[in-house]
Amino acid sequence: MKFLLVSVELTFVIIICALRKFDVTAQTYVTKYGRSDSPPYQEIGTFYEGYPDYTYEERIYDSAYWITTQSASGFNILFQYISGRNVKQKKIPMTSPVLTTVSSFTYYNAPEMAFYLPPNHQNNPPSPTDWRAKLKKFPSMTVYVRRRYDGWGRYASVQSELSKLKRSVTFDKKKFVSSMYATAGYDGPRHSGPRRYEVWLFAEEK
């Protein structure tokens, strides 16, 4: 058994070392592949591209306002906010992704769900009238991301992708916040075909 475990670990190391030469680095600003309804980010690189069990992206997101909630009725609360349940009674376009952050304290609190506020609402976002919704200005952040096109991002799939992401990032000796992760959903319930979701790890601040 010990020999088998060593062999598996050695095989993984050999594969990862072989894949390093396929790393791609880019320094361009992008918004959801040509769409303007997502927060802008700087793509640092796509690593192990072409090898789906190891591929991940590294991104830097700008500081921005998001509307958030930790209520069990999270989506409805946020949707009501952008539908006009705010102090300005302003309707705000729906954006993507719907970001859900899970931490080691989720047992005591529901995961935090968040909608990004579009650029024309970033300077003076309207305050929510529902106490369960909170405006937050997320700081600039570096995230490690795995993308999938697979149904609704069910728990088993998310955990599988999260495990793969942690494995690759750890092998690259990049530090991340081990007590939390996030899922990002891009497609609404009426979308036909495979739905895109992502799994995020947050880089530790240097």
Give a short summary of the structure.
The chain is of the alpha+beta class. It is built from 3 helices and 10 strands. Strands 1-2-3-8-10-9-5-6-4-7 form a 10-stranded antiparallel beta sheet, with helices on one face.
Secondary structure tally, helices: 3
Q: Count every beta strand, where a strand is a DSSP E run of 2 or more residues.
A: 10
Q: What series of H and E elements makes up the topology?
A: HEEEEHEEEEHEE
State the separation between the terminal residues, measured CA to CA.
39 Å
Task: Give the class from helix and strand content and strand pairing.
Answer: alpha+beta
The overall number of domains is: 2
> What fraction, in percent, of the residue positions are helical?
10-25%
Low-pLDDT stretches:
1-35
Q: How would you portray this structure in words?
A:
It is a single chain. The chain has 206 residues and is α+β, with helices and mostly antiparallel strands. It folds into two domains: 2-61 and 144-202, no CATH class; 64-138, Regulatory factor, effector binding domain (Multidrug-efflux Transporter 1 Regulator Bmrr, Chain A, Alpha-Beta Barrel), CATH 3.20.80. Helix content is 21%, strand content 32%. The chain contains three helices and ten strands, in the order H-E-E-E-E-H-E-E-E-E-H-E-E. The protein has helices spanning 2-19, 74-82, 155-171; strands at 24-30, 41-47, 56-61, 64-69, 98-103, 112-116, 133-138, 141-149, 180-185, 196-202. Strands 1-2-3-8-10-9-5-6-4-7 form a ten-stranded antiparallel beta sheet, covered by helices on one side. A hairpin with an 8-residue loop joins strand 2 and strand 3. It is globular and about 50 Å long. The relative contact order is 0.17. The model is unreliable at 1-35 (pLDDT under 50).
